[in-house]
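Interim report, section 4.2 (structural modelling).
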Amino acid sequence: MSALSIKQLTKRYPNGVEALRGIDLDVARGDFYALLGPNGAGKTTTIGIVTSLVTKTGGTVEVFGHNIDTHRELAKAELGLVPQEINLNLFEKIETIVVNQGGYYGLPRTLAKQRAEKYLKELQLWDRRRDIARTLSGGMKRRLMIARALVHEPRLLILDEPTAGVDIEIRRTMWDFLREINERGTTIILTTHYLEEAESLCRNVGIIDAGQIIVDAPMKEVLRQLQRETFVLTPREPLTETPVIGGYELSLRKDGDVEIAVEKSSSLNAVFDVLDARGIDIVSMRPKSNRLEEMFIDLVENRGAEKITAEAGA
Amino acid sequence: MNTWQVNWVGFKTIVHKEVFRVLRIWVQTLVPPAITMTLYFIIFGSLIGSRIGQMDGYSYMQFIAPGLIMMSVITNAYGNVVSSFFGAKFGRHIEEMLVSPLSNATIILGHVVGGVLRGLGVGAVVAIIALFFTDLEIRYPLVTVSMVILTATVFSLAGFINAVFARKFDDISIVPTFVLTPLTYLGGVFYSISLLPEFWQKVSLANPILYMVNAFRFGILGSSDIPLATAYTIVIGFVALLFSACYWLMHKGVGIRE
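Predicted structure of the assembly:
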């Protein structure tokens, strides 16, 4: 049985916008799954339907085997949601927000208080428990939303861009926490615009574009498909001309660094030898962008190109 | 834990949240009606009322006291639900409940009971203030209590519907200002409809608040312009109708789900 099973999910808004065009998705129990896609691709709509904040037009959704149409309460009891936008009662005390959320899932107040203490401590918010939510920083509000989503200990946790606007230190602390939660057995679905986050955390990835799933595969397999990588070479003195090296594609950047795109199996030794022979001393080398990001852009742009070609043909 | 238990705990949580909200902002929720009603008692009851004389065999102060209690119950029950539910919608923390396994009926009932409790609390405060100005003996306690609870329920449900449709804060003040206040003032709070010309007496009978105020006044004073059975039929009918409307709106997700 999957943690989440989506079949032929469609959503058409009253204004005619077709947000989802027959999505099929299966997320295994215990998985850490990345759901990626550009803005407006349909990620949040999909999550909205699964959590019943958005009504679907067609298709079926099951959470741990519970159909959201026929066994809505059972399905919802398995879910925890950290939404994209801050949706806290900003005038409520932090501890009360978490305790009340436990109550909405049927936790007796004593147990809800124990759980609130547990998760607020784990997310370093316990010292602020008597403050109202409005006084928290952006990162703290995000962590509070995670604590709130976990208070009933759901088997499936959905995080819709949980680290948006959070500084890197706190983001990495949150990553560690999410890894731990996943290791304890909670299935996690993560949407994010930080692709290094998805690459670092997730075992499987789905890419959604224009309301359709265009990739659904293990992260390793997706990354393996990358044939080319681009590196940025920084010379000791900024270059003014693009070096020409046979068999390699180099380009000069505005800052005097050089970009080089190579096939995954290629060696860079020859490049360094030629540059060295020309008196160009390379002091550092770094990947141009995150690998997943390259593939993501490639996939989405290619689909855009295909669409333009198809529309032109029509 | 079965569905019934989840909903029972969820219901208690919503009520708890609503009651603490009222107590937390007591300066906004409990003090203003106390001050307003004190002024009503002083101006209409003592100063003007002493010149009016008797109404339906009671002093004017005694006559208006049940109406003023009911007026504050109506306004506060309505205001509590409309502001709380719309505030939750506006701040999007209504999603806390919408993603949970709580049934639509539980969400409605939790908010309605919150509204009823605020209405009753404010009504009790106003009743205590009234005792400083006049003697009030409750002739029929069962009628008094049941009618005040039913009335608070009707207006809590109405407030819930207003909140569902409201898109901005202006939308939650339109109904109280342009509908609720005129209907309350014309609902027999300050006068007996027997004083009106026959035509306006018949027009007044279309005002549901008239039945609530009169039945409540009957419970306290033992006098009413309206048969009690008619009042109960209408008020219970409104409860059933408005609850069904709330349930349907929640089921369809009107104003709260995309």
